[in-house]
Design brief:
- It comes from Triparma columacea.
- The protein is α+β, with helices and mostly antiparallel strands and 244 residues long.
- It folds into 2 domains: 2-85, no CATH class; 90-243, Jelly Rolls.
- The protein is built from 8 helices and 6 strands, in the order αααααβββββαβαα.
- The chain has helices spanning 2-28, 32-51, 59-85, 90-100, 107-117, 170-177, 208-217, 219-243, and strands at residues 118-123, 128-130, 138-151, 154-160, 167-168, 193-207.
- Strands 1, 2, 3, 4, 5 and 6 form a 6-stranded antiparallel sheet that branches.
- α1 runs antiparallel to α2 (32-51), α2 (32-51) runs antiparallel to α3 and α7 packs across α8.
- The chain is elongated.
- The termini are far apart.
Length: 244
């Protein structure tokens, strides 16, 4: 009796998982890679569900399910290829968790953005990142350490890993983003000197021209970058209101 109950339980579990993986998951998840992974494991569950009761499976069913499993495997590997070819390093994973995960962008797209448009920059204490009035077409993200904003030699602000907004140069980037890459006003220039803090700074330096090109080509990257920029502007606006 216990053996029959065990088999019934296994059949029910496999049937439920296959139904969720092949049908319901497509309604729950938007990420194509997750859907492909569910389809792959769902096909394996279907084969096991057909095989378990009497330890055999019809030839027609085996051929059909084998074909569908092969197709699922191919699509899954196709989705994993960019990720496996250039696995994300710690800096990409950290930025994904801290800043981009909430936007819904797939990790593979952020990794592609990093490999295509960004460089990792390290500054020593007091080293200059940009000077007041410098024309900008680079978006910086503070990954470690801190940067200090100076006006006429006096510190007027600081940004570190605890800051809600860790973007530097977003005003200049947005100005060019909405004007086809052309500087439209002083907003495209730095409004203060920016130097590395006491313990130095590590930053992502994202090339503005390359990022705009990626945003045109990839809708998920476009949506996520715009959301991060909007969050940064919201934080900066709140800060300015609190100062008044």
């Amino acid at each position: 009796m216990s053996g029959v109950s065990s088999i019934d339980m296994e059949e029910h579990t496999l049937s439920s998982f296959a139904h969720y993986s092949l049908d319901i998951s497509t309604l729950v998840y938007r990420n194509s890679l997750i859907i492909r992974a569910f389809a792959f494991f769902g096909r394996i569950s279907v084969i096991l569900y057909d095989y378990l009761p009497d330890s055999q499976i019809s030839t027609d069913e085996l051929l059909f399910q084998s074909f569908m499993l092969t197709l699922s495997t191919y699509l899954l590997l196709l989705g994993l290829r960019p990720f496996l070819a250039t696995p994300p390093d710690f800096n990409v994973l950290r930025l994904y968790v801290q800043e981009f995960k909430s936007t819904g962008i797939p990790l593979r797209d952020l990794n592609f953005l990093y490999r295509t448009a960004a460089t990792y920059t390290k500054l020593r204490c007091g080293e200059v990142l940009m000077v007041d009035g410098q024309e900008l077409d680079t978006l910086y993200f503070v990954a470690s350490g801190s940067v200090v904003f100076l006006k006429e030699g006096r510190a007027v602000g600081k940004m570190d890993t605890r800051s809600t907004n860790r973007l530097v140069g977003e005003l200049g980037f947005q100005s060019r983003l909405h004007n086809g890459g052309v500087r439209s006003s002083r907003r495209a220039a730095a409004a203060a000197d920016v130097v590395a803090g006491v313990k130095g700074a590590e930053l992502w330096a994202i090339d503005g021209q390359k990022l705009r090109r990626l945003m045109k080509q990839n809708e998920e990257i476009n949506r996520s970058v715009n959301q991060v920029l909007a969050n940064a502007m919201h934080t900066k606006l709140l800060f300015m209101l609190e100062k008044q």
